[in-house]
Amino acid sequence: MSGNTLRLLVVDDQVGVRRLISEVLMDEGYIVEQAATGREALERIKQKNYQLVLLDVKMPEMDGLETLREMRKIKPAVPVVLLTAYGESEIMKKAEQMGVQHFINKPFDLEELRFTVQRVLAGGRSRAEVVKEIGYHRA
To answer: Which of 7, 57, 89, 95 pairs as cysteine with 64 (C-beta 3.0–4.6 A)?
Structure first.
């Protein structure tokens, strides 16, 4: 799978976080779109197909879990990586019940972000398998 054919959606109410994640993933060759709210994310998801959604938990109006719940009604199979703060185990349990298998804790490491996205898009294979496929590993 070539990165330039994969469309990702970054959903976070903090513009700086959205920009950082988007820039890192665009540098990896992905097509990255942004949404500042859960409602905006749902509108985008209705209009386009995304191979992955990176979704913040803590957002005003419609939080990440509510957005996820509604998103599952529209496109139930889209993989989601939840961006969460340390210690939100109850939220993580609820998200797992809605099919989320991958979490990135804030503040996050850029290498962890890159690798998690690659791993999810590679179907959950091991780090060694992903590194072998993409041909490099950033330190």
So the answer is: 57
